[in-house]
Amino acid sequence: MLLLKGTQRCLEGGLAMRLMLFIATLFVSITSVATEYYTIDRNHTFPYFAIDHMGFSTLYGRFDLTTGKIIIDRENNNGYVDIKIAAVSVSTGHHKRDEHLRSPDFLNVTEYPNIIYQSRNLTLIGKDKAKVEGDLTMLGVTKSVPLDVHRIRCGNNPINKKYTCGFEATASIKRSDFGSTYGRPNIGDNMKLWFEVEAIRD
Questions:
Q1: Within a 10 A sphere around the Cβ of 194, how many other Cβ atoms?
Q2: Is 54 left (phi over 0), alpha (psi -120 to 50) or beta?
């Protein structure tokens, strides 16, 4: 009789353990489906900018080194963005101008090597758009800068077979808000920003 009771307790204990493991596995599975983690593809991600030059033309440039992480929670239509841009990687196609942009007159890359954008709120809109409220930190100054995200496209990369998402994002800032006033008004204050981004699912 004691042996039967002991066996029953063992069976009940084993059943409870298996049930707990099943629930834990199911929870992890559901969480992993709902939440996706991505790493920025630095070879296919470039922030661009445009600024007025003396009223005659528009100067275009970009940054060649960007890293970061993106989280997408499709079930709750939200997510998170954390992007770091190497200021020294600024490129306008003109060596002397790029060197000047890296100087204390503009980006001051020695003292402020990174430009950082971190979201506070990200809302997915349909299948291919999103609104992002976040903070841009540049030259040691942090300001709220919203992003409009569009053309979100996801799927398996036909070359490396990795699941990838790409999108475009646009914003505008005043460089004077970040303490950059050199050359005004000949060099414009208003800057248009846009990002071409690809991110690979972890």
A1: 17
A2: left
pLDDT at 34: 76
User: Which CATH number does 36-201 carry?
Assistant: 2.40.128.110
Query: What is the sign of the dihedral through the CA atoms of 50, 51, 52 and 57?
Result: negative
Domain edges within the chain: 36-201
């593809």: which residue's tokens? 41
Using the structure block, give the residue that is written with the tokens 């005004």: 184
pLDDT, averaged in runs of 10, over the chain (202 residues): 53 60 51 81 99 98 99 94 99 98 98 98 95 98 98 96 98 98 97 98 97
